[in-house]
Amino acid sequence: MKPFTFQTVPDIRFGVGATATLPDMLRGRGAKRVLLVTDKGIRGAGLLAPVEEALSGAGLSVTVFDEVVADPPEDMVLRCGEAAKDKDAVIGLGGGSPLDTAKLAALLAKGQQPLSEMYGVDQVRAERLPLILIPTTAGTGSEVTPIAIVTTGETTKSGVVSPALYADAALLDPALTRGLPAEVTAATGVDAMVHAIEAYTTAHKKNPVSDALAREALRLLSVHVRGAFEDGNNDDHRGGAMLGAMLAGQAFANAPVAAVHALAYPLGGRFHLPHGLTNSLVLPHVLRFNLPAAAPLYAELAEDVAGHAEGSVEARAEAFVGAMEDICEAVGMRRRLREFGISHNHLPDLAEDAMLQTRLLQNNPREVTLEDARGIYERAW
Ligand SMILES: NC(=O)c1ccc[n+]([C@@H]2O[C@H](COP(=O)([O-])OP(=O)(O)OC[C@H]3O[C@@H](n4cnc5c(N)ncnc54)[C@H](O)[C@@H]3O)[C@@H](O)[C@H]2O)c1
Ligand SMILES: [Fe+2]
Predict the structure, then answer these.
(1) Which domains are delineated in the chain?
(2) What distance in Å separates the CA atoms of residue 228 and residue 241, rounded to the nearest whole number?
(3) Dihedral sign (CA 83, 87, 92, 97)
(4) pTM of whole model > 0.70?
């Protein structure tokens, strides 16, 4: 058997009401002054007040930084890092954007290393403050990944990838996602499914722990993303989607994602479309492109998303791709690039941008050339 390594967050608490343990966890870590990182949408949805009150009620001094915006821009991350300077713990509450910002703020707090030197894999030298992450979307899995994505400049996204970004604890409370709008439920849920698929087919770090997590994630997500989209108040569906997203996060943290994400990022960078939506726009086209190399693995995944699949490897792989298209369709995510103000003239530039995502493309089961990327965008247009 091939050797592998696997890492994850050491303390994961899941269940309706899981956030109630937060004050005790902080006190246990000796924290007194806490920075709570979130965004205005979370405040507006009424999710911030109970957490803030529970912390103040427990005698902790809480400062709220609610200026996070989607796809965190670098200057905002730096401001959040400043806000963390006199604190002794950081809490992230929200979707991937507040969680990624909280991770970096916890690293920037001690002023030991500028953000500009942290981009890339294993570049972090700074120590970080204690960090607890509380997701309110079931999508990125950021609560258990060693990754933070920042929008640098106008259109580019850069990642900080380092074990230092594994939080001390993740608190998963499905009740926090009850009010998540249906279209965000759909987009973030598809993102999570893509994490599981790309982890399972990744070219270099595929490992048996990630494989098991990815398959269980897909099994859960293929049922519960659709269920949560249709009935947002159903805690079984919300819990299934949240658990699935977290398992997919653990999987791809150790078996990294590939061409779907590489081709999705330029769409987010240039057109400011939500991360999950951009994934769904290219997903079926990348899966079909990958079939010559990935059919045997896709055939295995067919059991998790299309239980009835049978026949040859090719037939089961096709059933898998078809089932993913059906799920996207059912949650309103089977759309085309042209519906989002993207003109045909943009496709060459998008393909050039995608080729810059070498960190991701190297993980794809089939090599992607510039011409291949243009062809995929063409089919998605
Ligand atoms: N760190 C990682 O491993 C990782 C992985 C994938 C993506 N990402 C990054 O994560 C970001 C995307 O995160 P996201 O998709 O979770 O979205 P997000 O955090 O950008 O949030 C999207 C919107 O949903 C709202 N929202 C969130 N939870 C809500 C709730 N429960 N009720 C009502 N509204 C709610 C927010 O206020 C916001 O307006 C991107 O920057 C992406 O690059 C990170
Ligand atoms: Fe993603």
Answers:
(1) 12-177 (3.40.50.1970), 182-380 (1.20.1090.10)
(2) 7
(3) positive
(4) yes
In this structure, the strands spanning 33-39 and 120-121 are unpaired
> In sequence order, which ranges of 109-254 are alpha helices (DSSP H)?
182-200, 208-230, 235-254
Q: Which atom of ligand 1 is nearest to the CA of 71?
A: 41
Give the position of tokens 């002054």: 33
User: Taking Cα atoms as reference points, which of 267, 266, 187 lies closest to residue 228?
Assistant: 187
**For 125, how many CA atoms within 13 A lie in the half-sphere containing its CB?**
6
DSSP characters for 222-291? Answer: HHHHHHHHH-TT-HHHHHHHHHHHHHHHHHHHHS---HHHHHHHHHHHHH---HHHHHHHHHHHHHHHHH
Per-residue pLDDT of the chain (381 residues; tens, 9 = 90+): 889 999 999 999 999 989 999 999 999 889 999 999 999 999 999 999 999 999 999 999 999 999 999 989 999 999 999 999 999 999 999 999 999 999 999 999 999 999 999 999 999 999 999 999 999 999 999 999 999 999 987 777 889 999 999 999 999 999 999 999 999 999 999 999 999 999 999 999 999 999 999 999 999 999 999 999 999 999 999 999 999 999 999 999 999 999 999 999 999 988 989 999 999 999 999 999 999 999 999 999 999 998 878 899 999 999 999 999 999 999 999 899 999 999 999 999 999 999 999 989 999 999 999 999 999 999 999
Report residues whose beta carbon is within 6 angstroms of any ligand 1 atom.
Answer: 39, 41-42, 45, 47, 70-72, 94-98, 100, 136-137, 139-142, 145, 147-149, 176-177, 179-180, 184, 188, 275-276
Distance 191 CA to ligand 2 centre (A): 5
Handedness of CA 36, 98, 247, 138 (dihedral sign): positive
| Rounded distance from Cα 275 to ligand 2 centre (Å) | 7
CB 283 within 8 A of CB 260: yes
Coil, strand or helix: which one is 152? strand
Chain position carrying tokens 């996602």: 177
Ligand 1 binding pocket mutation candidate from 16, 65, 136, 137 (most atoms within 8 A of CB): 137
Alpha-carbon distances, residue 75 vs 41, 67, 106, 164, 196 (angstroms): 20, 11, 16, 21, 31
